[in-house]
Write the structure tokens for this entry.
Amino acid sequence: MKRFAAPSVLLLFSSVAHAQDASVKRDVSPASTEDARMKALEDQVRTLAGEVALLRSELKELRETKSPEPSSGPQVLLAAAHPEPGMLPSSPASAAAQVAQTQTFGGASGNAKLLNPDISLIGDFIGTAGHNNVAPERSLEMHESEVGLQAIIDPYARADAFISFGETGVNVEEAYATFTSLPGGLLLKVGKKRADFGKVNTIHNHALPFIDRPLVTNNLVGGEDGIDDAGFFLSRFLPAPKNWFLEGSAELLRGDSADVFQASRRQDVSVVGHLRAYRDLSESTNLDLGLSYARGHNNLGSNFLTNLYSGDATLRWKPLRRAIYNSFLFRTELFWSARDQLSAAVPNLFQTEHAFGMYSSAEYRVNRRWTIGGRFDRSGHATDARLTDTGFSGILTYWPSEFSQIRGQYRFGHLATGPSDFSNANEILFQFLFVMGAHGAHPF
Amino acid sequence: MPRLLTKTRLTAFALSFALVFALLFPVTGRADSKIRIMTATTDLASLAQEIGGDKVDVESVARGYQDPHFVDPKPSFLLKLSKAELLIVVGLELEIGWLPPLITQSSNPRIQVGAPGYLDASRFAKILEIPTGQVTRAEGDVHPLGNPHYWLDPDNGLRIAKGIQNKLSEMRPNDAAYFAQRYDAFEQRLKQSDQQWLAQMKPYAGRKVVTYHRSWPNFAEHFGLNVVGYVEPRPGIPPSPQHTVELIGLMKRDGVKIIIVEPYFDLKTPNSIARETGGQVVVLMPSVGGEKEITDYFKLFDYDIAKLKKAFDETH
């Protein structure tokens, strides 16, 4: 690991040095002409004079509103017109406070948050009813309470942490620093993070368009947490043909990701590579394509590798004038797994098991509050490709506001229990999501 | 034989990625001397263009007919942001749902929050509706730092323009005189236009209106309108039957005839309210580019005031 540590440290130092260089250069700006300086000074004096006049007028208004008989001039009336009817200030003192607040010149942003990070909590309550003999879930559970802490660290970096509290345990879902001032247009994230392997692997539970994760996630990509590991995440925009956006990511991880990768030794690191191509087809329609590769050691030991390949395609439609009422999204992801293991049939025979899985999903926003969706699943098992699960789901989502969500999902599964044995699962899932605090936006 | 992932192979793999990224694709250099400006909204783009003239290239992320609260942070914006020297934002958490990931992912140190190329226009503007006391989302999608639709007051337009002039002069000291002269000309034109707009609106001073969202407090204050209710029961909450009934009652009682709606909201509820109250729905543009003919900050007020005047005359 020392070999990796040295270049990484160099990279970090160079980023900081680069950023500092830039700021020094900015400070030593070329001297302007005397006239320009005089003009700038005059402008400043004029601005200050304007501000003094304005402060005086504010003071005057404040005094007026504090007087026993507040003037009913248009200024006071208009300021008071903004609260909801029936919520008007009841006393002259509170009216004065209201006016004082409306006269602030951009001063609010400084004090409101001080240096605290943005803190949020997203509650995810899931209920399940129906019949499933293969992978039964609990009837009612507080599936996850995800606490988010997000802040800018310094002029060169920001940090995001998402700690997920289950009913019985805690998991650091993500916690990473993003270095935004690296040279060469590089973006480096360091910490623990969901790897950029396909699309659904990067999405937090609460941001999914369904309640559960696709069958292929469970069968081939490590289950609910997916490839979520500690390491370095480097990405950069790449030169692309006109109107295309290309981005490449290279990630070096410890090698422990749920059921898919396991590091028995320090050297058993895993790597993830991702290439994303995006194009706006029109103002309202866009196409998002991706290719991903992941390689790591599996739970059988250091001599056993798992290679994962993925291709994803997303078509989005959202008319800008009606963005909050109507939208459509179609997504397909394909996964291939090549897993080294010992043959179940012949003792001590080394073999590579090749399995394939995919899902396709669509969602349509009918109006501001309702979305309908569906998903088709098909996936082999990573350890035995002869076992193939199939399923489909219908999803209905209701949003009381931006900060809460109620969702129902009917799920049918034709689940393999043996090479030619299947068990059918019919289930109804429901979910209540609620957001407290300021949760930062997710990447597109 | 099992395939072994040796240290050497891994190192080669990692190094080759780093090499590909860092060396083979050098960052595009600045080809011309124009300042590349990205703005969050079209109004800020128009103001930046007024001051920057032919010394700047300006582009906005959001379109004028788009709800600025809900913009998709598409990767196509990332390329433009990665090359920008200056990013001007509305601030007050208007763009909180889409701009932060764009800024971070742009990998552009110049426009990160707090960097010299990041300009929050709300610093210069007069802000209304800063909540007092406890702020909770029981009040809907409240903006704890104040109402972010402040650019709809020409006085604020002037203040923002001044802020932009100072920033551009700081970035290009040699062009400071040019920017100062552009600002002076803009100030003169805007003050003249404002006199005309105020004169046009004077006969309707104190008129009560209802708006869909709380987008118009600065506009209402400047032009002497009295906003008495909202189609949304709370900011960001879709209209509910009970609130609509209450609003119809309020409008009938107070003789309110005008319902101002932004172009990105559904007209079904406002139309039914208008039918019930004998009023009129007026779709006003909150931003430059909302309609094809609204090509700059001046035409925005020309358009809105003409439409409002017509509606007041028709419903009198």
Summary: The first strand of chain A starts at residue 118 and ends at 131. The longest helix of chain A spans residues 34-66. Chain A has six helices and 16 strands.
